[in-house]
Automatic annotation (TrEMBL):
<dbReference type="InterPro" id="IPR046884">
    <property type="entry name" value="MnmA-like_central"/>
</dbReference>
<dbReference type="InterPro" id="IPR014729">
    <property type="entry name" value="Rossmann-like_a/b/a_fold"/>
</dbReference>
<dbReference type="InterPro" id="IPR004506">
    <property type="entry name" value="MnmA-like"/>
</dbReference>
<dbReference type="GO" id="GO:0008168">
    <property type="term" value="F:methyltransferase activity"/>
</dbReference>
<comment type="function">
    <text>Catalyzes the 2-thiolation of uridine at the wobble position (U34) of tRNA, leading to the formation of s(2)U34.</text>
</comment>
<feature type="active site" description="Nucleophile">
    <location>
        <position position="101"/>
    </location>
</feature>
<keyword id="KW-0819">tRNA processing</keyword>
<dbReference type="InterPro" id="IPR023382">
    <property type="entry name" value="MnmA-like_central_sf"/>
</dbReference>
<comment type="similarity">
    <text>Belongs to the MnmA/TRMU family.</text>
</comment>
<dbReference type="GO" id="GO:0000049">
    <property type="term" value="F:tRNA binding"/>
</dbReference>
<keyword id="KW-0694">RNA-binding</keyword>
<dbReference type="Pfam" id="PF20259">
    <property type="entry name" value="tRNA_Me_trans_M"/>
</dbReference>
<keyword id="KW-0067">ATP-binding</keyword>
<feature type="region of interest" description="Interaction with tRNA">
    <location>
        <begin position="147"/>
        <end position="149"/>
    </location>
</feature>
<dbReference type="GO" id="GO:0005737">
    <property type="term" value="C:cytoplasm"/>
</dbReference>
<feature type="domain" description="tRNA-specific 2-thiouridylase MnmA-like C-terminal">
    <location>
        <begin position="284"/>
        <end position="353"/>
    </location>
</feature>
<dbReference type="Pfam" id="PF03054">
    <property type="entry name" value="tRNA_Me_trans"/>
</dbReference>
Amino acid sequence: MRVVAAMSGGVDSAVAAARMLDAGHEVVGVHLALSRSAATLRESARGCCTLEDAGDARRVADRLGIPFYVWDLAARFERDVVEDFVAEYEAGRTPNPCLRCNEKIKFAGLLDKAVALGFDAVATGHYAQVVEGAGGRELHRAVDTAKDQSYVLGVLDADQLARSFFPLGDTTKHRIREEAAARGFAVARKPDSHDICFIPDGDTRGFLARRLGEREGELVDAVSGEVVGTHAGTHGFTVGQRRGLGIDRSRLDGEPRFVVGVDAPRNRVLIGTGDLLGVDVVEGEHLRWCGPAPAGEVRVGAQVRAHGEEVPASAVVRDGRVSVRLDTRVRGVAPGQSVVLYEGTRVVGSATISGTGRAA
């Protein structure tokens, strides 16, 4: 096959490209330029897509003896990922930009362009496995559960999965670094990048404030309706948040308080005790299936955050939406996050959380 290897400049994508070459494929390395103002050097381990990363990717490609190109998708990344991220927070939701990037950039923008240029597939350094099942290719969790990235790949549909390779899914991260060192890759000990790549200093609230400005509003007790403080914008808060609330604690009973709701239209943040955070009903929209859509009520495992635990659940798909009933309550589930459904290790699909609640 003719394969585009997405090369971020990190150790994982380097080994993924090498393994595809070892497997006998015709491989071309592609680095995605996603930042309009890439810094020369990383500001921290959080950043990615810098000039340094592009250079690291090019050196790996040179060592492998494969062609290497930089594709500029910065404008599309800004529109489909960054602007979407800001708009979601402005609306009082908590998005996962990595899922949106996989959906809109790596497995739409990159894959579509690769196919248009005559390539057969795309390979990335994600930790997940593709298994040939009776009904076609299936997406499964990685062997290394600590590094498993199947959650952020839950947005792939069957057609995208048919043209995707994840060569690292059967190996632990420790082994990948050893393999990179044995291959002579200078990136073997390079630190991993972390979410969110376009906020390299990790200050999400500051990033959003610069984009949206300050909009003073009230912090309201979710039970009594009493105003217990003020805030500079609902975009600085997410369900489950405890720190940085700015509460007048002299008016409280000493028990910890959390964000239990964000009412963006009324510019209010609802505050409550931890017992108000637990939910066992999750409603989802923007459904994406990695294979056939479930029919009727099905038993699944549900995961509501990238590094969260899988919870046994029942799911019902109806009228383009999914309702997930969790067997146990989960705390801090916010609209805008994604719920990814599993059958064993297989990814069934995903949905964007539109609402939560408690079963009667």
